Amino acid sequence: MMVKSPLQIARETYVPKMPKSLTGNVKVVEGKITESVADQDDIKKIFPNTYGMPVITFEPGSDTTSYPAIKVGVILSGGQAPGGHNVISGLFDGLQKCNPKNELYGFLGGPSGLVDNQYVVLTEELVNEYRNTGGFDIIGSGRTKLEEEAQFEKVIENCKALGVSALVIIGGDDSNTNACVLAEYFASKKSGIQVIGVPKTIDGDLKNEVVETSFGFDTACKTYSELIGNIQRDANSAKKYYHFIRLMGRSASHIALECALETQPNITIISEEVEKKGMTLDELVTDIANVVARRAEKGYNFGTVLIPEGVVEFIPAMKTLISELNDVLAKFESEVAVLEGNRDKRDFVASKISAESAEVFRSLPNNFANQLMLDRDPHGNVQVSMIETEKLLIDMVKSKLKKMKKDGLFTGKFSGQGHFFGYEGRCATPSNFDADYCYSLGVTASLLIAEGKTGYMASVKNLTAPAAQWIPGGAPITMMMNMEKRHGNLKPVIQKALVELDGKPFKMLADNRETWAMTTSFVYPGPIQYFGPTEVCDLPTHTLKLEQGK
Ligand code: FBP
Fold it and tell me: Is the pLDDT of residue 65 over 90?
């Protein structure tokens, strides 16, 4: 039996705020037909059954619609994000509202549960245990890729045997790309199985004109910002450490940027800017060391540095090195596996990559070079969460400052502390924003299914307004797609949203960073508040507000 904390017990009774249009009868309003963001001809050819569908909005309606009873399956896919349980509770309640005879099956452990037919029937009693809680533990998650026709056929077979006629895939860009491929396959086979996606990821990189933010980003950023604020207060009290804080977010720097806007640290690295400027590792280190030296002149020998976890992949020479390592490690997997020591592995790998990359590889500290050789994820990418960039930067800044001291360019003290915040925030109790947003996404998904849609992503817009004014609906996933190279081949994928350097959130950082570097203007946001005044408890992220001109 689950032992519940007082907060969890209190949160069980929290009723998520909802868009007005989801609380009564609903009218379906179809918008214009859609086009993919790029590569229209290719995407149209690959998705003949699900391309060009209109965007849908659910508006308040006057007529009651009766829907036939159905069985629906749901999976949680990829990394955890706060609010997943509320998507499921919203989906459950929405399905019950459409027809009390509807049933919801939770497939276990992510996409593999669909193929292996591992499931649990989601009853009211079970769902009630998880309302407004963090985590994905109600049914678990996983990163298995569904890409083989044999897997698709197995999913059809399992769904048919259970009588499941619709699937909801709660995931990030890769999982929703998968949802789109499945929807198209099922439609082409006339299987009668619908597929609806729900935008999840703390990374915040699944967003576009129809998806304003992915769920979980809000809570994760607020959790990290609380921790950063606490560290900043410690730094400002003790005045003796520089804290190098690496933040999750994979390729995109949205989390680092949002946390910077919430806490005003001295230095924030934004990977997208590093790439745009074509910076070398040494230039990055020099920039940080210069700020440390200038602060020392003012008597400040402490501070905070925020580092997006994916930054190494945005330094051009490192990007080339990592891409060559990806290829070599995939090609010579068995040869590398039999080598005993890391040194042998490094030497072997260095002998297989270009001379320039080998030089970069050999210049890295051994520990760091070893981390670059660790196992790749199922998509063949380096697992940036396992690369301790904060430690690398502390060591390199230290060496740089030593040299600067010799040259009379640094007169202060430098002592670095490394931190990595990622897993701390992925399962946090969802903020009111995520609890409300996710519940609405779940209800919206139930309506898309009831209305017979497939290949759509649930969307809830106007998110900086009070929840009652949010606009629920659905957007064809094909409209978010373009062609990208994966494992050497062009594939249709949802376009990832990286930080836009001409966007308002980055501009806010750029306009303030000199002040934040040279003064101590730390903000201490404190913990997420769940009960209390709306201006404290229901705030969207700075990113969302700035993007919407608020
Ligand atoms: P998703 O893209 O699946 O939402 O996962 C995001 C993330 O939390 C990244 O920020 C992080 O790099 C990665 O997952 C860590 O993966 P894992 O959970 O496999 O360690």
Answer: no
For the segment(s) 19-216+430-486, the CATH number from 3.20.20.370, 3.30.43.10, 3.40.50.450, 3.40.50.300 is 3.40.50.450
24 CB-contact burial (10 Å; exposed 0-12 / middle 13-18 / buried 19+): exposed
Atom of ligand 1 nearest to the CA of 200: 4
Record the pTM.
Answer: 0.95
∠ CA 471-134-305, rounded to 5°: 90
78 lines ligand 1 (CB under 6 A): yes
Gap from CA of 205 to ligand 1 centroid (Å): 12
β-strands 471-476, 416-421 pairing: unpaired
| Pocket of ligand 1 contains residue 273 by CB under 6 Å | no
52 residue type, one letter: G
Q: Which of 93, 173, 174, 203 is catalytic?
A: 203
Domain 220-309+387-425+498-550, architecture per CATH: 3-Layer(aba) Sandwich (3.40)
What is the tens place of the pLDDT at every residue in 187-241? 999 999 999 999 999 999 999 999 999 999 999 999 999 999 999 999 999 999 9
203 catalytic? Reply is: yes
Evaluated on CA atoms 33, 38, 43, 45, the torsion sign reads positive
